[in-house]
Amino acid sequence: MSAPLEIGAYREALLFLGTAGVVVPLFRRMRVTPVIGFLGAGAILGPAGLGQLTGAYPWLTAITFSDVKAMATYAEFGVVFLLFIIGLELSFERLKRMRKLVFGFGALQVAISAVVIASCAMLLGLNAVSSAIIGGALALSSTAIVMPVLSERKRLGTTAGRAVFAILLFQDLMVAPLLFMVALLDQRFDAGMSTNPAVAFFYAIVPALAVVGALVAFGRLFLRPLFHQVAVTRSTEFFMAACLLVAIGSAMLSAAAGLSMALGAFIAGLLLAETEYRREVEATIEPFKGLLLGLFFVSIGAGMDLTEVARNPGMTLGVAVMLIAVKALIVIAIARALKFSAPAAQEAALLLGPGGEFAFVMLGAAIAVEAVPRAIGGQLMLAVTLTMVAIPGLALATGYLNRAQPEAPADHPELQPGAEGTLSSGNVIVIGFGRVGTLVSEMLARHEIPYLAIDGDARLVMRERQAGHPVYWGDATHLELLRKSGLHDARAVVITMDAPRAVEIIVAMVRRERQDITIVARARDAHHATVLYGLGASDAIPETMEASLQLSEATLVDIGVPMGYVIASIHEKRDEFRKLLQPSGEKQQKRHQIRYATRVREMRRLDRERDNSSEDKKSPAAE
Known about the structure:
Layout: H1 11-29, H2 34-45, H3 68-89, H4 92-97, H5 99-123, H6 128-139, H7 143-152, H8 159-188, H9 197-233, H10 236-256, H11 261-272, H12 278-302, H13 307-311, H14 313-337, H15 342-352, H16 357-368, H17 374-389, H18 391-404, E1 428-431, H19 435-446, E2 451-455, H20 458-466, E3 471-473, H21 479-484, E4 492-495, H22 500-513, E5 518-523, H23 526-535, E6 539-542, H24 543-558, H25 563-581, H26 586-618
Parallel strand pairs: 1-2, 1-4, 2-3, 4-5, 5-6
């Protein structure tokens, strides 16, 4: 008989999952980023919140986080996955396209902010090392909050939104060097290494560079072949395991060399960014990143002592307000010098003024190696938390500013809406890159319309990538993959797959996600086209209809009918077909929605049967 399960060992994990189950839906409904909810939940349920009442009310122990240090150990993986995703998003092509903004505006913001904040810290009596770390930590802003806020308010395509994105991009690039600097400080503060600073630095930098070089070399040689072999199996489980192996394995190797885990994950993500598996990797890792990053913010909240704000409100609130004011003024000054409009400069300043999540990482690491005094570091982290909580309110204030003072057109070509998107690789998403998809893509390229293609055949994707086509591997029936492929900024989605069930799922899924997008889908026949129209397709093209129209066109031209009359009659007949195929009435629309739900259930059942069949074939009994 097995021993009874010790629930206490899993209590905090269950408590966190329950917190996530309440926080995420509630704050999504309120249209506020869940990060604020995680911070607040951690503060309320932490030792400095309800934890103080457990002595008088023992039953509160069941709903409070008591072991904050153990939480922080697992919460670090939230930052690991965040850096991994950031590495995936920082393709060299994107950096090249936005180099002036990223390495101009972004570099000026980080450098000037870090110098000004570090100078203030030195004026207050801190030494140069502590001041430099504080300046670098507080110069960064919150990618985890600002980007979702811009997305929810549909401001990513504006001048201010794109400028904020460019600055956050440079800040994300700076995270790795700053974490590297803290790691070197950790080596420096290790007792007994060497009294000579130059020798200590040498012994610290050589192993670090060796590990970074080994990660880069290993990644370039083995990452693409590894993911190709996994992708050929078309196993979702194996692909997820490979993603977790690469992210966590690279983090562990980095940690073993004395560097931060996040730095190793960042390098792995950067190496995968140029491969055809990048989009599917992002979609696979996203749930893990979201959950573990939530745990990271809960642990930060649980480690805060909000009573400190009550005891010394002037100091804590003063530091928070001064941080926002100083960084905002710096952003406005740089933006105006670069000839940005006043509304765009003000919006960017208010969103970039607060601190960010990496301030906790840097300050926590610096406190651990005694490079920053614990009391000062704790006070700064509390102030940064308050500034992050204020971001949704500041975003709301930018809305009033924009209404009072309309935004002028962008002066920078990189910010023009017609330029290649900073958040998406193409304006049209082509799903399926077989015979039909290739032809559609060629026509888009001929008219200079950028596109991004998705296909589930790993061998085909590799071949087309070598030919220079922007094709990515993945399962397009997963909404998260389409989101990562730029669905929210795409002009149209063209579905060319020869799989009716999958086409129906994608059409309905895309239409629910975006009501305004153009959806052109390949249909098996006239009946299937009618189904796709009912699910939300803008145009559904039956293969049989187009073949008959092309035969008719060729016949009429060959027997001497003028080309102009033929083309006009073909277009007229095509329009007649469309009117006949499009469903009418709410009952018909409802019938197609029910058909879609039935298709989804049937597709899942077939997938399970196929997986079970594959397992049976592999088992010794089947042999």
